[in-house]
Amino acid sequence: MGQGKASKDGDRRIGRRAVLIGGAVAAAGSAVLARDELARLWWRAPGVEKPRKEGEVDYAGARWVAASEANWRRADRPDDYGIDMVVIHVTQGSFASAVKVFQDPEHKAAAHYIVRKDGHITQMIRELDVAYHAGNRAYNERSVGIEHEGFVERPEDLTDAMYEASARLTARICARYDIPVDREHIVGHVEVPGTDHTDPGRHWDWDRYMKLVRAARTAPA
């Protein structure tokens, strides 16, 4: 997670490019570009808000605790940004400290989920929204981020309950968005281009994790 370092992902602001959509782009007849950009920005228009229920979660086993709005960006995924990846993180701290920094507007980063050592899952950002978790805007837009309580150099932090709960969560995300259950689409934070993070670290058992995800993916919902 890197609690002391803000995400490199910045928000998309309505500015000169949005003006061009309504002006020069339309005048040039670039209907495809205009339609794509307007689809991504429709909810920013005055009086337009995507229907949402306070406290609603995307994963039935999760508890909702809201992250600061400064640490994510409202979106309409997968309609505006297709979701085809899950990014695995380790918090480099306790569960409580991860929740605290994700609620801190100065942190400028947060993941969609945190999995505790005992398997408890907390959701802090809706999957339809873009979380600032990967340090790479393109990856943030296309992925769901899952944090795991612990430290990368302490293998004892990676408990059976954590692996099993996280695998069930990842399996449901993959099922929801038709994401292939393989290492090209389920990746570690360290594998994100441009990142300076090392999580989930050398002790994360990818073979074990992927077997659990595949088993959960094929199990009855």
From TrEMBL:
Pfam families: Amidase_2 (PF01510). It comes from Streptomyces nigra. It catalyses: Hydrolyzes the link between N-acetylmuramoyl residues and L-amino acid residues in certain cell-wall glycopeptides. Its EC number is 3.5.1.28. InterPro entries: Amidase/PGRP_sf, Amidase_domain, NAMLAA_amidase_2. CDD domains: PGRP. Gene3D superfamilies: Peptidoglycan recognition protein-like. PANTHER family: N-ACETYLMURAMOYL-L-ALANINE AMIDASE AMID (PTHR30417:SF1). Residues 72-201 form the N-acetylmuramoyl-L-alanine amidase domain. Keywords: Cell wall biogenesis/degradation, Hydrolase. This is N-acetylmuramoyl-L-alanine amidase.
